What we know:
The protein has 90 residues and is an all-alpha fold. The chain has one domain. It has helices spanning 2-58, 61-72. The mean pLDDT is 91. This is Septum formation initiator. It comes from Candidatus Harrisonbacteria bacterium CG10_big_fil_rev_8_21_14_0_10_45_28.
Amino acid sequence: MRFFVVTFLVVVMIFLASQFFALNNERGEYVEQVEANSVETRILEIENKELKEDLEFYQDDKNLSKELRAQFNYHEPGEELLILVPGKEE
């Protein structure tokens, strides 16, 4: 009878140990995932901050007009547009 109890306890201990190692490995995977998500979150927070700054910048009509003129050669009616082309290098 004692042999069966000891055998049963050994089997239970082996089972519990295997479950512990499996959970520990799974925990390691989750820690890596959290670290990766943390890095991605920081990157997205920086990008979000830059977008908010751009939004605030372009809400000013003067800044928006300046960017339109620079990027799309936009000009007001009655204004003359002068485009300078760099000369050829020798």
